[in-house]
Design goal:
Layout (H helix, E strand, L loop, with lengths): L1 H17 L4 H27 L2 H9 L3 H11 L5 H10 L5 H9 L1 H11 L8 H15 L1 H13 L5 H10 L25 H33 L1
Helix pairs in contact: 2-9, 4-6, 5-6, 6-9, 6-11, 7-8, 7-11, 8-9, 9-10
Length: 226
Amino acid sequence: MHRQRRRAGAHRATTATAAGSRPGDSVGRVNQVKNRLQALGLVDRAFANAGDDELAAVIEALGDEHRAALDELVQTDATPASVREAVGTGRMDGTMESVALILTDACLADCIEQLGDHADYPSSDELREVLPGIVERHGIGISRLMLASTVAGEAPASSIIRDLLKHDNLVKLPPAADRPISPMLETPKPDDPERAAIRAKRKELKKQKQEAARARREQSARDRRS
């Protein structure tokens, strides 16, 4: 089925080109694929550089719903080893991203709360201001994974976060180790409805936490004026 889809896509692209599509369209598609692979590479590197103790701690801290979702993704009881195995075989089918979403949910929620009204479009300076506290509370490995996950999720601040992961002294990822590209090119699977549901729920939780943080700030301001 996936090969048929790729052949159908190639056929449509060839037909469109023959019909007079602009060369720039193809360049744009190539750049999108390149950026996508680079973003997934950041998540992969963040997983590789997260310690087993960090993974074990964040797995242990998961609530029942998150833990059940993680166990289902890794198809066994979630442990650092089973998570790494699932990530290693699921780089391109959405499994790696879904695992990262679950493991970094609390870290992301904390970051959103600290950023407050700047959470959707934070500047580099605003992120640098809150990241030391995030790293202190959640660990460097999970903090990097959270940042990489937001890049893969195409957050508005992806370019800023990508730069931090490359250059910031606190959260920059170590140089990538040489590893075969073939696992990244395994046969892709259709978008998983469960993964889409996780994304939708995470978006809703993000909105709720932003509103709660805003309400707390407004109440604090009213208290000060009283």
